[in-house]
């Protein structure tokens, strides 16, 4: 370790990836050289960080003099167990510490059992191990024999740009299908939401879809989803097909939503849920993973989808009609939570970088 530099400026942390809202929140206004930008990916368009070069032994060897800590968040699902072992060997050979945050216990992109084996190898090899909720920490310990330190998800929406919350009618149920990735139950959740909204006089369903999946050559193109959206529009839903929203557009949309529905078939934690909480928008999430530990949510069950969505939508509508605010949206509380998350990460980085190897308690 480069101890003199560490004492002077702090450890240099290579995040995988750096270009992610979660990492943006953690880094804040810290000097850019302590959290360098993602390196370019050969053959990929500008701004694409995957597959991340820093997850290869060669990159580690070539850049070992530049970093003290490798912090892996996402983007390792393309690796195999042997790849992780070679990566860890290179990190150890060059005295670089490995920090792992377990965001996802299952891969939202659908790589199956291999993801669990790779995650287990990373968990066992990390010098410091964190996750976002007590339930996830317990599950990591049950599966892999190590209990991570719990550091709550940092707020993602900057306090200075919190848009005004929506007031007045109608009650808007928002469903973002995006690009129909593997863990999105588009048709069942869309139908359940449409049925639930149909039973309310002053409610509207708003559905978003990324325009790329309307192309027949797109790998997740689904003509049935498009037909069902056309029918929903004819029935009065506000259906919006567009390019991915930028942050400001997305925050504005979520702030103007009364109830945001997460249409996931699996998952562990959610940045989408975090954004909604920051904005003071109520969330309806499936009763899986640890969404309900991350932030207060209403829940539905996939094995009782229509009825459970209807109950939750009607409960949210009743609270809205009574003027009950959703959890979150308090700038002072969010600022304190953000600083707490940043401070906890600084301690983790300093601990491993100074050879005080941090193991989850």
UniProtKB/TrEMBL annotation:
Keywords: Transferase. It comes from the Bacteria. One of its GO terms (molecular function) is transferase activity. This is Glycosyltransferase family 1 protein. It comes from Janibacter melonis.
């Amino acid at each position: 370790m480069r101890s003199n530099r560490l004492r002077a400026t702090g450890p240099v942390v290579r995040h995988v990836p750096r270009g992610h809202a979660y990492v943006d929140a953690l880094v804040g206004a810290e000097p850019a050289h302590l959290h360098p930008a993602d390196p370019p990916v050969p053959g990929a368009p500008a701004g694409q960080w995957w597959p991340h070069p820093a997850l290869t032994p060669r990159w580690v060897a070539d850049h070992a003099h530049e970093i003290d800590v490798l912090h892996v968040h996402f983007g390792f699902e393309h690796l195999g167990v042997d790849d992780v072992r070679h990566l860890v060997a290179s990190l150890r050979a060059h005295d670089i510490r490995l920090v792992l945050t377990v965001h996802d216990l299952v891969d939202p992109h659908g790589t199956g059992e291999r993801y669990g084996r790779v995650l287990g190898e990373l968990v066992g090899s990390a010098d410091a191990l964190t996750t976002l909720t007590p339930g996830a920490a317990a599950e990591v310990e049950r599966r892999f024999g190590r209990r991570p330190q719990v550091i709550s998800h940092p707020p993602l929406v900057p306090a200075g740009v919190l848009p005004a919350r929506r007031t007045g009618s109608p009650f808007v149920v928002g469903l973002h299908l995006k690009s129909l990735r593997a863990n999105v139950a588009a048709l069942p959740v869309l139908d359940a939401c449409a049925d639930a909204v149909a039973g309310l006089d002053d409610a509207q369903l708003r559905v978003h879809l990324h325009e790329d999946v309307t192309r027949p050559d797109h790998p997740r193109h689904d003509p049935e989803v498009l037909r069902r959206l056309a029918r929903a529009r004819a029935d009065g839903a506000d259906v919006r097909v567009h390019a991915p929203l930028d942050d400001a557009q997305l925050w504005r949309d979520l702030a103007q939503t009364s109830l945001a529905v997460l249409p996931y078939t699996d998952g562990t934690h959610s940045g989408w849920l975090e954004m909604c909480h920051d904005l003071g928008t109520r969330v309806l999430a499936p009763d899986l993973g640890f969404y309900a530990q991350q932030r207060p949510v209403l829940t539905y069950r996939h094995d009782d989808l229509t009825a459970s969505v209807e109950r939750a939508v009607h409960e949210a509508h009743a609270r809205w009609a009574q003027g009950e605010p959703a959890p979150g949206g308090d700038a002072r509380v969010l600022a304190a939570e953000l600083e707490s998350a940043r401070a906890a990460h600084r301690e983790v980085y300093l601990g491993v970088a100074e050879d005080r190897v941090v193991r989850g308690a």
